Amino acid sequence: MVSLSSILEHNQQFVQERKYEPYQTTKFPKKKLVIVSCMDTRLTELLPQAKGLRNGDAKIIKNAGAIVSHPFGSVMRSILVAVYELEAEEVCIVGHRECGMSGLNAASILNKAKDRGVEEKCLSLLEHAGVDLETWLTGFHSVEESVAHSVNMVRHHPLLPEEVPVHGLVIDPGTGTLDVVVDGYETVKGGCS
């Protein structure tokens, strides 16, 4: 287990030795790209390398499964901020093979939560408050379908400009191979409709 003290000790040395200098850039993505990607640890360095990206080239939003699950959730808000405030001009949803969200079921997570002390009354309270835990904690069966669904949600968001392409890709976490699910250039509408 990594302790906070070891992180802070490393950080102090990192700053003193000015090791941050090679990473200095602006808040604006140089390649005008915002990426939604899975939080899988295999993608931390692999995804940017596989796409030819360097520090500062893209805004990267990470969550479990690279899923845009709600049109007015934090992922969609982050995409809109990147487009309107940070000059991003394209969106790319990148799922991956062997994703932990593939086949994930709520019962497994809820049983583990109970084993770690979350009481049944808490789960009941959430359900009575209208939280559908079964849906919220269930993954997907096909990474391609999940990516296409997220692309569709972003592409059809009422606040996203029509000229912003939304791409969908799947990466192999073993080799970095990228497969196109949705070519956003094919679905971009030009001008006012």
CATH fold assignment of the largest domain: Beta-carbonic Anhydrase, Chain A
Q: Taking strands numbered 1, 2, ... along the chain, how are they ordered across the largest sheet?
A: 2-1-3-4-5
- The computed structural class is alpha/beta
How many strand units?
Answer: 5
Structure description:
- It is built from 7 helices and 5 strands, in the order H-E-H-E-H-E-H-H-H-H-E-E.
- The chain has 193 residues and is an alpha/beta fold.
- It folds into 2 domains: 25-100 and 142-193, Carbonic anhydrase (Beta-carbonic Anhydrase, Chain A); 105-138, no CATH class.
- Strands 2-1-3-4-5 form a 5-stranded mixed sheet, sandwiched between helices.
- Strand 4 and strand 5 form a beta hairpin.
- The longest helix is centred in the first third of the chain and has 13 residues, at 4-16.
- The protein is globular, with a radius of gyration of 19 Å.
- The mean pLDDT is 94.
